Amino acid sequence: MPGQLWTEHEIEQLRDFLSRGLSASEMQVGSRTAAAIQNKAARLNFVGDGIPRKRWTGETERMLKRLVGDGGTAAVISADPELLSGYSRNAIQKKLGRLKLIDRSRSRRAREAIRLSSEQLDRFHTFLLAHASRCTPEQIALLWNRENTPLVSRRRVVYHLQKLGIKRSWAEVMQMPYSKAKQRRVSQKASLASERRWEEYRQTQESELRQESRRQRRRAQSRGRSLGERVCRDCRRRWPASEPFYVLYQKQTASGRRRYLGRICRLCRNTRRRESKHRRRRGPAAS
Question: Which of 48, 45, 41 is nearest to 56 (CA)?
């Protein structure tokens, strides 16, 4: 029926068909062709459910680019009516895709993800039911990947555990033997890293103190003065009797405030403080 105007009844029919999710080829609106139905829906801005949507203009596109450049996401932008009112989260997300403002690597990873077939999924669910009570999600993934394909990640295991309604709580997972062994390994690794950082810091501090002591000795020698020195009670090394080699303390006495230098050098003082801190962490039982 080329050239014939659409009636209100036909437009309501079109809206009803769109609300039911039918495509243009599945609709029967009088004797209208599928192309005519599709063109009419586009002219009326009917999409999906037959509700008119706002068209994107150059101004709204520029605003969207600016908001995304400031770190905004589709969810954040659509939730704030003062930013881009009238645009849903899905509309903003699709527009970002058309403007190539989304993370393409994430979309590529989603397309390249290996899907489980129905047979593999049944076998995987059976495997989960057999191990979920005594194994952590990471452990289940490792056990599955030893003898089965496709390989699964810890995240996929967690997803299917939630889907089956057998996911353990975080507290229960942390009490499992695998988690406790992993905690011990992580703790040992962190302890070794801390020791390494402490040793590097101590060597740097000692090097700086030695350079400062040489500068002070040269300065005193050039002025023809003697440099007062003090031997550390712990390491027995000789340092200039001043800061920063020794800590300067203050003490309130009956005769007033008195200032005096400590008997151990700054390096040994830091070592003592570190050892004392570790003893307090371990507690009296461990010591």
Answer: 45
* 85-122 pLDDT per residue, tens: 778 787 888 888 888 887 777 677 777 778 888 999 99
Q: Which residues neighbour 87 within 8 Å (Cβ) at sequence distance 6 or greater?
A: 54, 60, 77, 78, 95
3-state SS of 58-87 is HHHHHHHHHHHHCCCCHHHHHHCCCCCCCC
State pLDDT tens for residues 21-38.
Answer: 677 777 888 888 888 888
- For the entire predicted model, the pTM comes to 0.50
Q: Are strands 51-52 and 229-231 parallel, antiparallel or unpaired?
A: unpaired
- Check: CB of residue 132 under 8 Å from CB of residue 168: yes
- Which DSSP state fits 253? E
Can you give the residue ranges of every domain in the chain? 8-52, 58-109, 118-175, 183-286
CA distance 162 to 164: 5
CA distance readout (Å), 154 to 75, 106, 145, 151, 187: 27, 18, 11, 10, 22
- Contact of 209 with 239, CB cutoff 8 Å: yes
Task: Using DSSP, state whether 12 is helix, strand or coil.
Answer: helix
Sequence-separated (6 or more) residues with CB below 8 Å from residue 95: 56, 61, 64, 87
